[in-house]
Amino acid sequence: MRQGLMAAAAVAAMGAAVWASGAAAAPSAAPTPPMGWNSWNHFEAKIDDATVRAQADAMVASGMRDAGYRYINIDDTWEGERDAKGVIHPNAKFPDMKALADYVHSKGLKLGIYSSPGPKTCAGYEGSFGHEAQDAQTYAAWGIDYLKYDLCSLSAPMLKAGSLEKAQAIEVEAYRKMDAALKATGRPMVYSLCQYGFYQVWRWGGSVGGNLWRTTGDITDKFARMATIGFGQAGLSKYAKPGNWNDPDMLEVGNGGMNALEYRTHMSLWAILAAPLLAGNDLSKMSDETKAILTNREVIAIDQDPAGRQGDRVRSEGPLEVWAKPLAGGGKAVGLFNLSDQPANMDVSFAELGFKGPVKARDVWGAKDLGKVKSHHAVVPAHAVVLLRVGA
Length: 392
Ligand code: GLA
Description:
Layout: H1 2-21, E1 35-38, H2 40-43, H3 49-61, H4 64-67, E2 71-73, E3 79-82, E4 88-90, H5 97-106, E5 110-115, H6 132-142, E6 146-150, H7 155-159, H8 164-185, E7 190-194, E8 212-214, H9 223-231, E9 245-247, H10 260-272, E10 277-279, H11 288-294, H12 297-303, E11 312-317, E12 320-326, E13 332-338, E14 344-349, E15 359-363, E16 368-373, E17 375-380, E18 385-390
Helix pairs in contact: 3-5, 6-8, 9-10, 10-11, 10-12
């Protein structure tokens, strides 16, 4: 409900901006960072119709839908052959994509799919090259709500282009082409660019219609990789806004390669980054601990804050980093991150975050009000975070 209200507020704010400029534009399909689930991180190629239905069921039963998660996204390996007319069909793992979309929609959820602007996807399946308009129409007819469009084999002609400029032109043209094809269907679909952050995609991803764009290579279920990607987002905050998000890749929470404190760090950092929250675990087999991390309403509210502002690094001292995200109403979410292997004393003064005098503060994971204070001190365990909501 709260989620819905926040999304509605963001859409209304955008509507007002459009009205003020006199332009007519459809509301964005992603006024706040998309939330959902994607098959790749956990299932890779072992994904099929029954598993996707089970994830949709679990998204509802676990309370994730009510916490704001919406998209059930099928990643690579669903693709089958094209028929004589060039129309793409799913492979035997997905007997009826329209029926699957109907099922997912009947749960109050949305269905996403995956393709490549190249002739082949990263896993070697059929891509959309030369069939963009046709594929977009097929997705719309099935009832698809979200497309992840992954560069993959288009990198081959780019490498042969002869210059960085020519290579980039190939890429930009390909992403524009699919954007136009999606828009021509008349069905709103979230458009997710996946090209691993080449050519500073944050500078132009929005101009080719992207609602989100991957800023890095693939995440793995290891603290070091997650931290390299997440903390490597420093400096990108100015490129995110409602409708256009930096995407540091999908979540690994619950996949087993990190401990609970590390997964809290992952979730907190993604929330501060206003990153898409796409769970990448098996939702049908979640521990209570995993569920609690993924459905923490206060953390989700930071990610989905209607101001739509990405947070950034405030300062770092070796492995100790302080990050902050501006929130609607003048508050800030603040993360005290300890990337070292030892517990660390960390301090933040709220004056350094721009607050004057004592302000209301709350320890988010501790679910504890800290009163009106001017600073906070914490002993932060190894690889952990203390996440605060300050000032509002
Ligand atoms: C690339 C993407 C991943 C996933 C795979 C599928 O590696 O970055 O997120 O989609 O392709 O093959």
